[in-house]
Model the fold of this input.
Amino acid sequence: MTTYLIRFSLRQRVEHTLVMSFFLILSVTGLPQKYFDASWARWLINFMGGIDHIRQFHRFAGVSFTLLTAWHLMFAMGAVAAGRSPLSIVPNRQDFDDAIQMMRYYLGRTDQAAKFGRFDYRQKFEYWGLVLGAVVVISTGLILYFPILFTRFFPGELIPAAKVAHSNEGLMAFLVVILWHIYNAHLNPDVFPFDKTIFTGKISLERMHHEHPLELERIKQVRDIEET
Amino acid sequence: MLLTLLFLATVTAQPAPAPQAKPAAPPPAKAADVETCLACHSDRTMAVTLPSGETRSLYVDLETFRSSVHGTKIGCTDCHQDMMTVPHEARPFKSLREFTVAYYEQCKRCHFDNYTKTLDSVHYQATARGDRMAPVCVDCHGAHDVKPPQKPKSQMSTTCAKCHEGVFTVYKKSVHGRFLEQTNDVPGCTDCHRSHDVAGPRNIAWQRRTPELCRTCHENKTLMDKYNLSTAVAQTYVADFHGMTASLHETDPNRTVSVVALCTDCHGVHDIAKVNEPGSRVLRANLVKTCAQCHPGVSDNFPGAWMSHYEPSWKKAPLVYGVQLFYNILIPFMIGGLVLQMLLHFWRVVVNR
Done:
């Protein structure tokens, strides 16, 4: 009798834990740099050993995050190239329809909530937001790390522009995670207080039925699952 | 009899500083004191030869003393306390300098606050090391001819130039020094270096306060408007890497050294020039060299990374301005959208229950 499914592989779970850790370090060492004039930022900077230390931590975490992102994208591209990826994270027409239907559902215009596959449109949005954000912070971060190298090939104005982009993109990522991700993974009444799936890899059939019914159906076609 | 008179004169002279006494009519007691001494010291030929071979004239010009700041306020024995008896006791001084240094502490009887300040100065450090040439009060202020130090203001700087001639020559050619005689608006030596508690150029704490020093004038709107200069220079400096680091190092309790470009590292110190005059270090043509002081081997593009104290705008730094504008729109839109979505979801979940 099956009561749960394996939703995330070990690799995915480790990647999530790592990206979460790097994100935390980068936020804690990055945001005080953006708001260095504020008293809380000054306190935090002095508490963590001064601006020079913080910049070193930030660069170290940034390089780690870059390697992780590169690893993830290489793995993903490899899987796509080998035809092993179901491409279930790629947005499609259905996601827009789902989003509109969910809006109508939230507003009480319809009683029918959209039925989702392996990833719903919000999860896809967050994933691609992270990937896109990662590309922005990594590229601008490298420009800020090696300004002398980059100004050999590009105009100097690239440096302050990269700084503006880097700090704003970082702020936006931080706000999205604080508001949106924390809501979806913790405060959302459906999962409150804590959606453990990304850490254990397991999801209950009940939740699959409720949150990813199309994916459950697909699995049922290839595997024999008894529901209790 | 004369001595008793003199003694009484000194004692009675201490209290009751006659408010706004007319300079023309000095207190009679002081006059008596001065007159007593000048009975001998008005002789122009009076002099003493020291063991060093130097000759010290003992002549005192009454008019010079009268027109000094002390002329109507104190008498001879207020400073020359050890000259109460006539004939004076033999003095042990071997040289003129020894004589001057010996009188160093006389001023503190009245000017105690300024005297204590000098103890923190780089000049006193030299004195304490045993350097007899290090300046004491009278070297800058004079003795019988003490004048108000700031009248005219340029006098302060020409006083420093007596010893620091090399630096003064460079300063005189700078954008500040060129106008020293014409206006009180430009900083003289003591405006940056302080006077009694003058800091040495290698004093790190004082060096780190450089932006603060420059700010006192360069953020003064009335003053800067007069010369059509921007008051945003400090703020734009702090907004960029160098200024941010400098400002954080300043409040870092664990930090004693700070290696980061301060105002003077780019603009120069005593040779500071108008930004657009040919010799200026911050002229576009010279900027690569200026940056290369700390960033060796940079390309011609590199100085463009610094926005030259400008706030980003479509005219200056359009790329920076554009990126900022993009995020100013995107972030509220994104966060607003997500919060709305969250609230709708939450509301629906609650309603469904």
